[in-house]
Specification:
The chain is built from 7 helices and 7 strands, in the order H-H-H-E-E-H-E-H-E-E-H-E-H-E. Helix 1 packs across helix 2, helix 1 crosses helix 4 and helix 2 crosses helix 3. Keywords: DNA-binding, Transcription, Transcription regulation.
């Protein structure tokens, strides 16, 4: 049975048009004519039996179905590009390992050690992608992740690597007295979005009873 899959040309034209919100700019990016972009998208809409853009004169705008499809197509094209680079740089008899890693951990710990791994395993290509937020591993395209403990990893084989040590940091001018718990309650507390319970864990480790709840902290972007 023949699969109902759009051509790569149609998907590339649609992704560019969706991103730019303009057929002419999509055509310029792909070195095509505006008419060619329009025809590719028309074929795609015919295949889907659904409109992807709302057209008003010469202006185009993604409709809800188009916006959803654009997100899916963008993810598929990005994965296809990554897999293509992976295979093109892989020895014929080699393998690859796709790892999602916290950005700081990757730059400060993992990458400096990859040379030794490559020397011991020359037929394995390691591809690293920075991922700050937890995600569902199955179906993500990654073989493993190095990340904080999180419910997203439930059901996965998990290996403990390191403990995390938390400490508060502030400008010296803010240290107006020796009552650190009281001072922290008066100041706006900032934490990483990916670790919303950081202050709660710090308070527990410091054996302090908060006067105000840790939820008063300001989340960082």
């Amino acid at each position: 049975m023949r699969r109902k899959i759009p051509s790569s040309a149609a998907l590339l034209a649609f992704e560019a048009a969706a991103r730019h919100g303009n057929f002419a700019r999509a055509a310029a990016e792909l070195a095509l004519t505006e008419g060619a972009i329009s025809r590719q998208i028309a074929r795609l809409e015919a295949l889907l039996d659904n409109k992807l853009f709302d057209r008003t004169g010469s202006r185009v705008r993604l409709n809800p179905a188009g916006a959803r499809y654009a997100r899916q197509v963008r993810e598929i094209l990005a994965r296809l590009e990554r897999d293509t680079h992976d295979v093109s740089g892989m020895p014929v008899d080699g393998r690859s390992l796709e790892i999602a890693v916290l950005p700081t951990f990757a730059s400060r710990w993992l990458i400096p050690r990859l040379g030794r791994f490559a020397a011991q395993h020359p037929h394995i290509v390691v591809n690293i992608a920075a991922r700050s937020d937890p995600f569902i591993l199955p179906g993500s395209g990654f073989d493993a992740a190095i990340h904080f403990e999180h419910p997203a990893w439930t059901g996965m084989e998990v290996t403990f690597l390191f403990a995390e040590y938390l400490l508060p940091i502030c400008h010296a001018a803010l240290l107006t007295d020796d009552d650190l718990p009281g001072l922290l309650n008066r100041l706006t507390r900032i934490h990483r979005r990916q670790n919303p319970d950081a202050w709660l864990h710090y308070a527990a480790s410091a054996v302090w009873r908060w006067i105000t709840p840790p939820g008063a902290a300001l989340r960082s972007a």
